[in-house]
Amino acid sequence: MSQWPCIPSVVISLLTRLYLAVVRCVFRLLWVAWGPTKLLLPPIDDPALVQSARTLALWIRQRKRSTVSIIEAFRRRIEAVNPIINAVVDERFEAALREAREVDRRLDACTQEEREEIGRIQPLLGVPFTAKESVMVKGLSNAGGLVNRQGMKASRDAEVVGRLREAGAIPVAVTNVPELAIWVESYNLLNGRTVNPYDVSRTPGGSSGGEGALLTSCGTPLSVGTDIGGSIRIPAFLCGTFGHKPTSGWVSLDGTRPFRYVNENRKISVAGPLCRSVGDLVVFLESVAPRAAGLAANVTNTDIGSLNIWWMDGMESPWCRPTEPSLREALHDACRYLHQSFGATLRQFQWPLDMSRTAEVWLSKKNNEDKDEPPLVSDMKNREDKLGQNGVLVVPVLPLVAPFHGELLYFWKDVNLALIFNVTEMPSTSVPLGLTKDGLPLGLQVVTTPGNDHLSLAVAAALEDKFGGWVSPSPVTV
């Protein structure tokens, strides 16, 4: 049912498109008047900066690079790019270097066989990582972007941070978020605005926007995010990286908000990774989520050809923004590839509700969880799921490529494509698919049923092989 049933849907659609055109024109004119937007980041001059976390860990174990040299390389990179992107809000470089020296002393005293055994126990030994500022990293800012919490530091590590430490990774910094991490723009009065490295007039998204911007700028190889309504997938999409919203409950939420209490039974919110490769998403999850044990093998052994690939290229509501042609084309190219190369079955998906209503459903879900009522997902699906245990849904993350700063305030229904999968508690992987002719990231999300994260990750890996994955926003000279 539409909000105003007396108005024909075609008229609503035309008015919606007119409104969007006016909003986009105004923002474009404002940024043209403001100044240049394509400010190039400094060139990448150290090969470590573009490596996966897994490769860095291997280099360290094989003593091809010292842990200290790796930490120093990312420290220099952060110092070079942060004045432009404004992502890092607090750091622990000196402490990280002390920990790196300990790792190097330990490995130098081991045989190669002993180092390989260490790698099985600590697969991320020596690898630096960062987390959004709302996630507790002991000794670093935990203000949640609030002016009245300025100067507040985390007294301990969030559990996800602690598990990464146990896997050998070294935290180096925390990054900008919107106030209380509850909006899709990483801006607040305490730390200012984080910009998109591909175009500073565009948003990197939120609430993990600082992580997305720093990750794609090669200021970190591994990012910790949270997702209550797209906060991992939206920044990953807008910044051209991979991001994974895992099955609800896989990754502990303890310490992932700037307040002491977090309801561990909440399903609408999750913690998870942003990375520049699918393989790093997997090693992150296996390191922090006991229920992800064996995930790498499951991803490798997934037969893409046996999957049912459902697809939908927009919200199909007159009240919602139509998906931009470049994103539709990229999504269709991805689906054709999965069908033609693997023989996967393609099926078009139909939304079970008017997608303009998604935010209302999301709020209902959130309110129900706050009251400890049964999950809304049971009623929505009538205890059934069209994807079953052998299907994925390919759909946009947003209906447009990177919006201008502030633009989503005027058309917030754009986030409905992300919100709906928090409501249904379904894992989802954000996948980059190259750049537009204007140099902005393209991408989509691959959604699957709870507990079947390996399916969306396997499809993401296949698309990474075909379309190349992450594309650097700055020149690479090594």
What does this structure look like?
This protein is α/β, with parallel strands linked by helices and 478 residues long. The chain has 15 helices and 13 strands. The chain has helices spanning 9-34, 53-61, 67-85, 93-108, 112-121, 159-166, 209-216, 233-238, 278-288, 295-301, 325-342, 358-370, 376-380, 416-423, 453-467; strands at 88-91, 128-132, 170-175, 187-188, 192-193, 223-227, 242-245, 270-275, 308-311, 345-348, 391-395, 428-435, 441-447. Strands 1-3-2-6-8-7-12-13-11-9-10 form an eleven-stranded mixed β-sheet, with helices on both faces. Strands 4-5 form a two-stranded antiparallel sheet. A hairpin with a 5-residue loop joins strand 12 and strand 13 (441-447). Helix 10 crosses helix 15. 52% of the residues are buried.
